[in-house]
Amino acid sequence: MMGEAAKVFDFVEEEDEAMRDAQDAALAEGKRIVEAMLFAASEPVEENVLAERLPDGLAIAEVLAALRDDYATRGINLARAQKKWFFRTAEDLGWLLRREESPQKKLTRPAIETLAIVAYHQPVTRAEIEDIRGVAISKGTLDVLLETGWIRLRGRRKAPGRPITYGTTEQFLIHFGLEQIGDLPGLEELKGAGLFDGRLPPGFGVPKPDDSDVLTPDEDPLEDDASDDFPLLAQAEDDSASIESASTESEGDEQAAPRAEEE
After folding, report:
1. How far apart are CA 13 and CA 26, in angstroms?
2. Which domain holds residue 228?
3. How confident is the model at residue 175 (pLDDT cuts 50, 70, 90)?
4. CA distance 140 to 230
């Protein structure tokens, strides 16, 4: 009887080991698939797009967590911005890849303050920004922030004059190393950093930021020609379109060259 029982236990252990091996193999293959997709992508990739390419029964969250651990100590790291994933240079090695180029124009203090207000209070209008800052802002300040790609036109407030509302972008998260807008420092963190001296009015708080693409009940959709009011933004969009067009034409020429040689 003891011998039969031992055989049963051995069989169960072998079955468990075989199952673990199959799971490890599936996870390894899933990591290879996601890794290949992210390396080939020129922009961050939506999590659901990655999930669609995985074998049945394999959870995308498990694959991404494992892949992130694999790259945690390497020269590039797996990073997330909202529901999109991408590889980026490890923060401590960024200095190695800095190009010799003219220094980027620094944001003015009004621009930095405006960016902070948009980030924490979005969706927010220009009048609301001025009300929070206590002073008027120039249209050029918003132009510059739109040109950086860190803020965007969201919609129009359902109010007299239908003012434009502003919010932050995915590029804002990537540039400042945030996975989601909720990672912005809260009141206690700001106090810890010495940005508040403790003499705050009763009930003072930092709003919980929300950069959802879904318009709020007091917002209307934006018209297609709204960017015409922002020349720098329109110029940036035109430049981007020209670059994409040139890239497409270049790819077409490269594909046509082999066919011409064959003929």
Report:
1. 20
2. 109-241
3. confident
4. 9
Place of tokens 């379109």: 241
What pLDDT, on the 0 to 100 scale, is given for residue 230? 62
Residues with Cβ within 8 Å of residue 1, at least 6 apart in sequence = none
How many H helices and E strands in the chain? 9, 7
**Are 24 and 122 contained in the same domain?**
no
β-partners of residue 156 are 164, 220
> Directed axis angle between helix 231-262 and helix 139-148, to 10°?
30
What number is the average pLDDT over the span 50-63?
90
Using the predicted structure, report yes or no on whether residue 72 has a pLDDT greater than 60: yes
Tell me the three state secondary structure of residue 113: helix
- Report the Cα–Cα distance between both ends of the chain, in Å, rounded: 79
Split into its structural domains, the chain has a count of 2
Say if residue 116 is in the same domain as residue 89: no
- Do 70 and 136 lie in one domain? The reply is no
Q: How many CB atoms lie within 10 A of CB 108?
A: 13
Please indicate, yes or no, whether residues 150 and 193 belong to a single structural domain of this protein.
yes
Q: What is the pTM (predicted TM-score) of this model?
A: 0.62
Question: 13 φ, ψ to 5°?
Answer: -65, -40
Cα–Cα distance measured from residue 100 to residue 231, given in angstroms and rounded to the nearest whole number: 29
Q: Report the CATH number that the domain containing residue 172 is assigned in CATH.
A: 1.10.10.10
